[in-house]
UniProtKB/TrEMBL annotation:
Belongs to the peptidase M28 family. It is found in: Vacuole membrane. Keywords: Glycoprotein, Membrane, Transmembrane, Transmembrane helix, Vacuole. It comes from the Bacteria. This is Vacuolar membrane protease. InterPro entries: M28_fam, Peptidase_M28. May be involved in vacuolar sorting and osmoregulation.
């Protein structure tokens, strides 16, 4: 077995941590304590809202609206319906896509207020949309968000009168182009009283609920989030990515208007997005519990704080396997960069390993190019090069994730087979393998400092392991290396899982970045391997990936019946 035991132990630990970090909590039953969020109770609302498609202007949409008005009123809130005509642009878009007559149905928001003890304080706004696309019951998008808001309100009411007002905005016409949200923030009299927004969305039918978007200058708000929310999921990387994507939610017009806020969504089981199969029975109740637990804790904190946090410079943040949120000023990334560089330099100097440093750096560059090329080309085989239905690609994400994993493993093995022979210094090799990524992390720190942490933190773990090898010997180096790799690779597995869900169908080659970081952590634990057998293994993995790609191309739909979105 050589030293495979070290790499194997690190991988087992990494997989366990990644699974923990990406698995939603168990749903709480309907008889859970009244002070707790219960997915079991929320599901009663999901079933009532998501029993059938309910697009804007339909009879079913009106039934859902009546149900929501009754539910909010029964909990003691002051409720009103606020209607406006759908915009001409939205009506034309619907007519074009459905072939229906060009009409402008009313867009009717449900607006409710729970009065606080001090009504002069800025209010907290809970927001979700109650309309669905044509052809989908929308149990996840967005009956789950609406039900989360209702169960959160029930719990807040049970707590007693809050310190400030809680406003609930259940918008109509989100799927037609954010019609209800645009109307509210453009002219509703309550819009001026809003101090912070918590929005709930979905693109799929399950998985961890992530806080993926904030308002600008989020530093103080994120400190409150960090202190208040148990089992948090979120990363400033997603905030950065979403800022540059063309996607939009009801939070978009609010953010443009300068409102502070938080945007939650789950994106697992993507084949159910806008699908006729998106029924209450198929909704992952753990995802509802996850979203509700985070939203309730955050809402309670926002209602209770004496003064809502103001604008402060954005933080760099990420969750550690859904246990705790790590957050720091964006400028602290330079400290991480400098510490990592110094530790690697010390390890390389100790072993006089410049040759291995250069070989390691070259290997990482080769790995990025090889894995990126394979991911891009095999993705073309899977159908990304043709007029593929967007929803079919979403439904194929689980298979595309396996395809990407096989290709990443193949590239990692192939490059290692060429690198391992003739190495003299493990620590020098680790320093060299990390060098290109350290330079990329420095560029990220300069250009987008809130993003650099996902690169620099794993590299810091690799640097600590390299120093332990160089100064503590093989045994200490192996022990520290296993722990560092389990934590770092586990984090990168979870990050790669998120990236593939978010942008994998179109840009799977982004996985080359976390793969290069995995190499910096894992290669020092791997023994020398014979080149030919290793290349044969890599070739088999590539062939398996091509087979999956052909499966996706020839049979793109997996448990999904594609419909269409009117909002995107």
């Amino acid at each position: 077995m050589g030293r495979w035991w070290a790499a194997f132990a690190a991988l087992v630990g990494a997989v366990l941590l990644a699974v923990i970090g990406t698995t939603p909590p168990a749903p709480r039953a309907a008889d859970a304590p009244r002070s707790a969020f219960s997915a079991g109770r929320a599901m009663a609302d999901v079933r009532a809202i998501g029993r059938a498609p309910h697009p804007t202007g339909s009879v079913e949409n009106a039934r859902v609206r009546g149900y929501l008005i009754q539910r909010l009123g029964a909990m003691g809130l002051t409720v009103r319906a606020s209607g406006t005509a759908m915009s001409q642009a939205a009506a034309e878009r619907i007519a074009t896509r459905t072939g229906a007559a060009r009409v402008r149905p009313p867009v009717v928001n449900v607006v409710a207020t729970l009065a606080g003890r001090d009504r002069t304080r800025p209010a907290v706004l809970l927001m979700a949309h109650y309309d669905s696309v044509f052809g989908s019951p929308g149990a996840a998008d967005d009956a789950a968000g609406v039900a989360t808001a209702l169960e959160t309100v029930r719990t807040v009411v049970a707590d007693g009168r809050p310190a400030r007002d809680l406003i609930v905005l259940l918008t109509d016409g989100e799927e037609a182009g954010l019609e209800g949200a645009n109307a509210f923030f453009a002219g509703d009299p309550l819009a001026g009283r809003v101090g912070v927004i918590v929005n709930m969305e979905a693109r799929g039918g399950g998985g961890r609920a992530s806080m993926f978007e904030t308002g600008s200058d989020n530093g103080a708000m994120m400190r409150l989030f960090q202190d208040a929310v148990p089992r948090p999921v979120g990363t400033s990387l997603s905030v950065y990515i979403y800022r540059h994507l063309p996607n939009s939610t009801d939070f978009t017009p609010a953010k443009r208007a300068g409102y502070a806020g938080f945007n939650f969504a789950f994106i697992g089981r993507a084949g159910l997005y806008h699908s006729p199969l998106a029924t209450p029975a198929r909704l992952d109740q753990g995802a509802v519990q996850d979203m509700g637990g985070q939203v309730l804790a955050l809402t309670r904190a926002l209602l209770a704080v004496a003064v809502l946090p103001g604008k402060a410079p954005d933080l760099s943040f990420f969750d550690a396997f859904g246990w705790v949120l790590l957050a720091y000023p964006a400028g602290f990334g330079w400290v991480l960069f400098g510490a990592t560089a110094l530790l690697f330099a010390a390890a390389a100097w100790r072993e006089r390993a410049m040759r291995d440093v250069l070989r390691g750096a070259g290997a990482t560059l080769a790995l990025i190019l090889l894995s990126g090329g394979l991911l891009y080309l095999v993705n073309l085989v899977s159908g990304a090069d043709g007029p593929v239905n967007y929803y079919d690609r979403l439904a194929a994400i689980p298979r595309l994730q396996v395809q990407a994993g096989l290709l990443c493993a193949a590239a990692l093995i192939a490059v290692w087979a060429g690198l391992a022979a003739g190495r003299r210094s493990v620590a020098g090799l680790a320093a060299g393998a990390a060098l290109p990524m350290l330079l990329i992390g420095g560029v990220a720190q300069w250009v987008a400092p809130t993003v650099s942490g996902v690169i620099l933190c794993p590299l810091l773990l690799a640097a600590i392991a390299a120093v332990a090898r160089a100064f503590g010997g093989a045994r200490a180096g192996a022990i520290v290396g296993i722990v560092a790799a389990a934590i770092g690779v586990g984090f990168l597995f979870a990050l790669g899982f998120f990236l593939m869900q978010a942008v994998g169908p179109d840009m799977p080659f982004v996985a080359a970045v976390p793969l290069a970081l995995v190499a910096a952590l894992l290669w020092p634990l791997m023994p020398v391997v014979a080149r030919r057998p290793a290349l044969r293994v890599a070739g088999v993995l590539v062939l398996l990936a091509v087979g999956i790609a052909l499966w996706v191309r020839l049979d793109p739909v997996a448990e999904s019946v594609a419909t269409f979105s009117l909002a995107r």
